[in-house]
Each structure stands twice: as C-alpha cells, then as structure tokens.
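Suppose a colleague, Dr. K., hands you the sequence of a protein chain of 542 amino acids and asks what its three-dimensional shape might be. Before reaching for any lab equipment, you can write down a predicted structure in token form. Begin with the sequence itself:
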Amino acid sequence: MTFIKLLLMLGSKVFFELFLIPWDMQDTQGGNDMFVEKITEINNAVNSWIWTDFGLYLLLIAGVIMTAVTGVFQITHLKHWWTKTIVTVFKKDNTSTKKTDKKSISQFQALCTALAATVGTGNIAGVAAAICIGGPGAVLWMWIAAFLGMMTNFSENVLGIYYRRKNKDGEWSGGAMYYLKDGVGKMKGMKIPASILAVLFAIFAILASFGIGNMGQVNKITLNMESAFFANVDWTVGGVNMINLIIGLALLVIGALIIIGGLQRIATVAERVVPFMAVAYVIFGLIAVFMNYELIIPAFQSIFAHALGVKALAGGVTGAALKLVIVQGCKRGVFSNEAGLGSSVMVHSSSNVKEPVKQGMWGIFEVFFDTMIVCTMTALIALTSGMINLETGVVNAGVSDATLISESFGNVYGQPGEWFIAIAMLLFAFTTVLGWSQYGSKAVEYLFGEKAVKVYKVIFVLMIVSGAVMTSSLAWDISDTFNGLMMIPNLIAVVLLSPLVFKITRNYVDRKIKGKDVKPMYSFDAEIQAAAEASQSEDIIE
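The predicted structure, expressed as tokens, is then:
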C-alpha cells in the first residue's frame, strides 16, 4: 500500500504542476522550469519506448497472437458476431438491450458506454494528426492495427467477463487488474509479479483518466467551441480565458449530474447520445466526401501508395519515413479504439451477459465501428478536401491537424460546417469524459475500495475546469504516456492467458455454432458459473 501511495503522490505532483497551473503562470515560476524540463525529458523517453519501440511491437504481436489463437474469428465467424451484436438491437425479441437489475447494464449499454469513451477527439483530431504527420499511408496502418485490435479487444472482454466478480454493493467489477491477479497470478511463480502488474495497471488507469480521459478531452472541446462560436471575443482575466472558463464550468455542472449518478446514469446517457452523434457525423461526412467524389479513388490510391513504401512523405523512400507512417497509423488507431489498453473491459464487464464470448463479440464490433467506420470517415473527409497533396502526402500551407477537418466541412457547408464539427467534438469528447470516469472509478475501487470512489468522482469532476483553462502542451504528452502505460501490463496478461481465451472461444463455438453438448465456460468462480448455468435466458444472467 505504501508503494501505491508513493506512485499516486508522484502522479499528483506532476498533475498539479502541469495540469492545474496555467502554462503562462508556470513560466513565471523560476524554480519550476527545471522541474518541467526534467519531466519532459523523462516523459519523452518513456513515451518513445511505449509508442515507437517495445509497446507498439507488443501491441501488434499480441494482436497477431490473439487473431491466430481464435482462428481469425473476426473473419471466419463474421456473420455470427455481426448477427449476435448490432443486428440484435433491431429485433423485437432481443436480449442485448434488456436490463435485468439495477446493478448491471445491458449489452448494448455496455457497448455505447465503451464507444462513448473511445469515440472522442482521437476520431477527429487524432486521425487528422496521423495524416498530417505520417501522410495518407498512416490510414492503412490504422486499419491494420484495428483489424488485429478486434481480436485483442475480443480477448480482453472474454477475460473480463470470465474473471469478474460482484462487489459489496452487488455491482459487477472486472478489468485487467482482476484477470492479472486471478488469472496470471495463479500461474506458477507469478503471484507477486501479477499482483504488482495489476496495481500498476490500476494506477496508470487512474492517472490516464484525469489526463486523456478528462482534461485532454475538455480542452479540445473549449478550443473548438471558442474557435467556432467566439472567435472574435477577447475576454481574458488574470491570464485566464474567461470564455473557456465558462465553458468548463458548464461542463462541470453537467458532468457532475451524470458522473455522480454512477454507471447506470452514464450508460443511459451514452445509450441515447452515442448512436445519434455517430450516425449524424457519418451522414454529414459522407455528403462532404461525395461533394468531392472525383478525389475518392485518388484518396484510396494515395493511402496504399504511401503506406506500402511506393511513396514516402514529401517524396523519397526512407526507412525513417516508412516507420513514421507505421507508428502514426498504429498509434492513432489505438488512441482512438483503445484496443489493447484494457480500458473498455471495465465497462463491458458490467454487462448482464453470461457468455464471455458474447461480450467479446461486442468488443469486435466496438473496434470495427470506431476505426473502420468513424475514423475512416474522418480520413476520407481530409483526403478529399483538396487540402492535402495526394501525390506527396503533404498538407497545404496554412493548414494544421487542428483545423483540417473543420476547414474541410467549412468548404462544403460554409460556417455551419465548422459549427457542426465543434458540436460533434463537444459530444464526442464529453461522452469520452463520462466513459473514462467509470474506468477510473473501477481502478480506484480495486485499489482502495468502494468508499474511495466517491472521493475520486468529486476530484474527477473538479478537474474538468482545469482542462478548460489548461495551456500546457506537455500535458498532452504526459497523458499520452499514461494511456500507453496501461497497455503493457494488460497485453502481458492477454498473451499469457491466450490458451484460456482459446479454450473459452472453442467451448462457445462448439456449443453455439456446432451444436455440441459440452459444459459451458462462464466464469472462474464456481458460484457465478452455477448462477449462469441456472439462468433461463440464453444470453443473460437474470
């Protein structure tokens, strides 16, 4: 416990220095310059290790392993997982939208809450940044990362359901920390290492929830709202942009009403907002793309040409250029869909589903929709906008990743197009905040118990205002690092437990697809297993 407190104290100091104090104020504090410089140096080294070296390779290797272990399930059983997930929502007798009690959420609510957390700034600003930095070829690597990530996310959710348990309040609790402790921890000689990894995952999840899951999202909201609706308003008091502060306070009030209400309220909001915002974005995006229909085929040609090394950014093929394309595509793909981070498992595990594979299939759809649909739409909007040279892959002068998509919409719809993107970013990013509040809550619960969750939620809500007025660019880099650090212990667990994922998946296929009479594998816990076996419903625990 002392180790946990030490890490959290260090994390708190970093966040206070970099997130809570406006950047211009930090610069006036002479003694703070050395601290910021040192933190920057450390963060750059760790971030590079995660996203350029070990972590990125581990992510791709894990995706390949889980795809192989499950027999390329995302392709070989495409019809099955498609009809057992999103198709069920439109059936009258479906169980995917059915709630059985006040302590759990439906399968569809779990999906929407997970999508609420994943469909955020990464789907717009993140994809634009990948293209601006890595060129059009980054899109193909984003697809590849998503294809492999489907099975990584599938495996995470299978393990999440299998190793979950009920807390003292009767709510489901699951996630990487549980299958690390109860799964990996049961392997010979792995009890202590698994416990340490579980604690580290929970700590990284808490810190990431404050950064990338809260203040990073809120900051993007305020910047886009200010640019779209208050561009001509200059109202600064004491170095603080008052427009941003007001927006932050408004988000704080709304966030408090939802987040303090717990998972049930978050899931209810997500179930209503996520489908609406996603469909609206895709429809208006399709219109924008087809307004420039003559660039659609050249856009796809540019994606493949740059991704496979036929062309490099700004011309000339080099290993560094190709690596940049791969890193940006994979990194932004993971940043968007979060496959491999182990984050969405903490929501999926709260579903009332009894079949681990059933929730795993919802995880496949989650990655598919997030990356293959929403992110691809953003990429096509950018590449057909005329603001990117499809031959060289270079963005036109005066265009940045921050403005690329809004300007693309503005070219088609005029000023209302920029307003639409601002509102889309508001909904995307704010629902991400709601989803990540649940992730952080579950991590806090694992470390400190249910009572500490209330304190966490209060702090989380208050930090919304900090995100609105924050000006530190280093803050984003640190958030990105904590986000990536979650990946390491989670992927270690997924890979080590891959034989179990294989057994559970084969068990499901034998029973549900091949019609064999075999004992189902629902849970590692005998009581939960028995309750699931006694359930009269085919899909859910009553």
